[in-house]
C-alpha cells in the first residue's frame, strides 16, 4: 500500500499507464494536510480541527473501457466521516463522504473529435484533461471538494427555515427560540 504523508504527498502517478495496465494505486491522505478541504471543516471551541487526526483512504483504479484503445478512465474511490459546519445554525454537521466516480482520461495532444466529445457528454462522462502524471493527493482532494454539499445543513436544524415558515410548511422549531431568550433577558434588565 502506497501511503502518502507529509514527505511523500508530492508523489505522482501516471494515470494513462495505470489505465493501460488495469492496475490500481491505493493510499491514505491526512485530512489535516488537505488545506482546501480543511477550510470546509468544523473546528471545536478552541479552534482545533475536529478531524485533525482523520486519515482518508483512497483508491485510484485504472480502467480501459471495453478494451478499446484510447478509451481510458480512472475510477476514484474514497470515504471519510468528516465534520462540516451547518450553514444555518453554524453547529457541527457530521457528513459521511462516499466517493466512487470514474473520469475519462483526455491526454494532451490527443484531441477528441467534436462527435466524440458530444458522445461523451451524452453519456454523462466527466473528462479529466491530462498534461502528464498527476499528484494523487490533489486529484482526490479536487473530487472530494466536488462531492461535498454546496449548502451543508442539518436535516432537522434547530434554527427554523424562514422560507418554509413563510410558505406555511411545518417547521421543527426549538422550544425556546434565540429570539425569545433574548427578549426575556431584556426584560430582566429592566
Ligand atoms: Zn443546523
What do these coordinates show?
- The chain is of the alpha+beta class and 190 residues long.
- It folds into 2 domains: 15-155, no CATH class; 160-190, no CATH class.
- The chain is 26% helix and 27% strand.
- It has helices spanning 15-21, 35-38, 114-122, 136-147, 162-166, 178-189; strands at residues 24-30, 55-64, 72-85, 92-107, 126-130.
- A 5-stranded mixed sheet has the order 1-2-3-4-5.
- Strand 3 (72-85) and strand 4 (92-107) form a beta hairpin.
- The longest helix has 12 residues, at 136-147.
- The chain is elongated.
- The protein starts with 14 loop residues before the first helix and ends with a helix.
- Mean pLDDT is 80; it is low at 1-8 and 168-190.
- Zinc ion is lined by residues 86, 88-89, 91, 153-154, 157.
- Zinc ion (ZN) binds next to loops.
Features:
6 helices, alpha+beta, binds zinc ion, 190 residues
Blueprint of the fold:
Elements lengths: L14 H7 L2 E7 L4 H4 L16 E10 L7 E14 L6 E16 L6 H9 L3 E5 L5 H12 L14 H5 L11 H12 L1
Bound molecules: zinc ion (ZN).
The site of zinc ion has 7 residues, from loops.
What's this model, at a glance?
This protein has six helices and five strands; from the N terminus they run αβαβββαβααα. It has helices at residues 15-21, 35-38, 114-122, 136-147, 162-166, 178-189, and strands at residues 24-30, 55-64, 72-85, 92-107, 126-130. The structure holds zinc ion.
Whole-number tally of structural domains: 2
Range of helix content? 25-40%
Strand content range: 25-35%
Task: Sketch the major β-sheet.
Answer: 5 strands, mixed
Quaternary structure type: single chain
First-residue to last-residue Cα separation: 67 Å
Structural class: alpha+beta
Major sheet: arrangement of strands? 1-2-3-4-5
List of distinct ligands in this structure: zinc ion
Mean pLDDT equals 80
Can you count the beta strands?
Answer: 5
Tell the overall outline: elongated
Low-confidence stretches: 1-8, 168-190
- The DSSP helix count reads 6
Order of helices and strands: HEHEEEHEHHH
Output the radius of gyration. 23 Å
Amino acid at each position: 500500500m502506497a501511503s502518502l504523508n507529509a514527505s511523500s504527498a508530492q508523489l505522482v502517478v501516471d494515470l494513462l499507464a495505470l489505465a493501460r495496465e488495469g492496475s490500481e494505486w491505493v493510499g491514505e491522505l491526512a485530512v489535516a494536510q488537505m488545506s482546501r478541504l480543511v477550510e470546509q471543516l468544523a473546528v471545536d471551541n478552541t479552534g482545533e480541527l475536529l478531524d485533525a487526526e482523520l486519515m482518508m483512504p483512497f483508491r485510484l483504479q485504472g480502467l480501459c473501457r471495453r478494451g478499446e484503445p484510447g478509451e481510458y478512465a480512472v475510477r476514484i474511490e474514497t470515504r471519510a466521516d468528516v465534520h462540516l459546519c451547518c450553514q444555518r445554525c453554524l453547529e457541527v454537521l457530521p457528513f459521511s463522504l462516499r466517493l466512487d466516480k470514474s473520469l475519462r482520461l483526455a491526454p494532451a495532444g490527443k484531441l477528441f473529435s467534436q462527435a466524440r466529445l458530444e458522445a461523451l457528454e451524452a453519456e454523462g462522462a466527466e473528462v479529466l484533461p491530462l498534461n502528464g502524471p498527476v499528484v494523487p493527493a490533489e486529484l482526490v482532494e479536487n473530487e472530494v471538494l466536488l462531492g461535498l454539499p454546496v449548502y451543508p445543513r442539518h436535516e432537522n436544524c434547530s434554527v427554523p427555515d424562514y422560507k418554509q415558515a413563510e410558505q406555511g410548511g411545518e417547521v421543527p422549531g426549538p422550544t425556546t427560540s434565540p429570539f425569545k431568550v433574548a427578549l426575556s433577558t431584556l426584560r430582566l434588565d429592566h
